[in-house]
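Fold these two proteins, one after the other.
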Amino acid sequence: MSTPSNSLSQLALQKFKKNFWGVFSLCFIIAVGIIAVFAYAFAPDNSQNANQMHVSIASKAPGFSTTMLVLPSQIEHHQNFVDALFFGEKNTTTEIPITSYSMTGNTIHYMEYASDGLIGLEKEVQVDPTMDPHSLIREQRFLLGTDKYGRDLLSRVLVGARISFSIGFVAVFISLVIGVFMGSISGYFGGKIDAFIMWIINVTWSIPTLLLVIAITLALGKGFWQVFIAVGLTMWVEVARVVRGQIISVKENQYVTAAKALGFSNFRIITKHILPNILAPIIVISAANFAAAILVESGLSFLGIGAQPPMASWGAMIKDHYNYIILGKPYLAIIPGLCIMFLVMAFMLVGNALRDALDVKA
């Protein structure tokens, strides 16, 4: 008969499973991660950056639907399935919102959509005789409405999840690599090395995070990856301080002394004996940094130095529509704001659940 495992990892997993909000938040994060990776498969507008504009139907309420006339382009483009799935389809068609239409042979007579009770222009277009004119007409529904440029808001929100989610991973990875290395050296060796590294940490810590990120971003230039690197380079100090404090508290323990007596190298003692025993606070601070990275990126995009148009970003969406809060259409800014809030809250709840689960004393 098999006996249940009593390892610390198994006990921590069991404690984590009992935390409802921790498990729920983790499932939410996984769902957002899947949406971020396969955003264009879920988005109604699967064009690159979900940037299909229809000015005549700008700022429409959620649930708005209209008839679209889709005119094919003569421009040929070749795109494989994988590229279209992960980076969006290179859409060369022309979409025209219309209110009515009629067909005579291969000629389509239509009236363009006009808002505010206006009457649109009546036009006609000749289609290829080999094509079925009815295939160019489709009904389109905008579940979350349209933004001020007439783009599908739901598609922009789904594609924007990719930036917020990916910047968390990149920033946390950079902060862990630098922070764990600097904190380990500082805490383990002490002395002048510790004093020098702590001086660097204190200088970096004294500069406001957003100001430092802006300075690094301006130095590296505006762009997608520049923001990722800038955010990661400003978050390592928190990891370094935590790692340094934990190593100072455990480096005099008996298992570290025994490892030194056996002649193990400092590198092996740090990586094989000390770091595995201080993973709990590192995991918690990583979850907090993930949430902080999302907020910083949103702030940078709001200021216009984050992800650049036409790239979809939750922070940029708030920037484009925050004035609509007092113009009777607050959902244009509230929806991406809620997305940021829910994702940040999920990471904080997961971090709290992991802290409780990995607490050996409890």
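Now the second one:
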Amino acid sequence: MGIIPTSDKFPLLVVINPNSGQKLGLQIFETTIKPALDQAGKSFRLIESSSQGHAQSYFLDNIKPILTDLVQSLSVVDGATSSVTPPTSATLQIMVIGGDGTVHEIVNGILQSIKDSPFASDMFRPKVEFTIIPAGTGNAISTSLGIKDAQDALDRFLAGKTVPMRMMAVSTRSKKDFEDAVENQWKVLVYTVVVNSYGLHCATVFDAEEFRHLGNERFRQAAMKNVANLKQYEGRLDFYGPVQSYDRTSRMLTVVARLDNRSGSTLTLLGPFTYLLITKQASLEPGFTPTPLADSSDEWMDVLAVQNVGQSEIMQMFDATPNGQHIEQEKVEYFKAKTIELETPNQGRLCVDGEFLPIHGGSEGRIRFEIDSDPNTQIFSVFV
């Protein structure tokens, strides 16, 4: 059943993940968010996420009736003819009191439900505006936007300024399409809003689960564990289309010329990789800014690649990440790209916004990352 508007303005959807971070979501809502919304006369509907995956399932099942009610609340009725004129667009506001994982779930639930449906077409295109109240562990999106705390995020929501929040599509090909050499038959597995990683970062996030009781400290503990047993991860990264590379001499991004006309790739990095990130956010948590040139609103993915280095070199990189100065180091490569493919010789693991995808070895198991240009996908923005 859809949400029935309780006022002349469609209600804000407030999604709380009470288990995010230090489990302060409900307290933040009661002490900071609810009083401010009541004072502003902003009606809202509270949605509490009860478990991992719940927010995604909720929006997968409910976004169509929600949008139906939203459209009805904005439709214009001609009193003379009783005809109804629906809007060509409608904006749904969602406030998330939680972390990046909750945003990831909501985005994927919405897109999985409405993509290729009448709710996302040339005739009607919904818009979704996120307010992200930082209550998670990393809070990458909020940190990258410079949001200090819940009150700061609330003030930005009330001020009303938004910027686009671009999605990255992570895709594979089916075995049949690969065997039949069918081109451009990539199937989107998931959309990501923060980071995709391979190598040390992925292993760190995976192992951090055993230290979850330590809060943010869990990532440092897991990182030290993996640095102590540092591994190199075989693979190749192919860039297609326009690519920019950070030049340490000029301290500027420069355009990379096409290098391989036979394969169509603009640039290829042959591993092994020690550390590999493909991101849309500058910071992944306070004090950790691995991709300082990233902008969640632009149409580029930022790539941080460190290939085949030892413990001392990776620690030097970590020491310089709080202010982003690691990109000046010789063994650190930094790019901006729009389409990338990762291939590994053996089965491996990919981290996508804190979740994990298996990678199958060889050309058949290639993974593609791209900024989806479909306007029916890029329907999200965030208050800043």
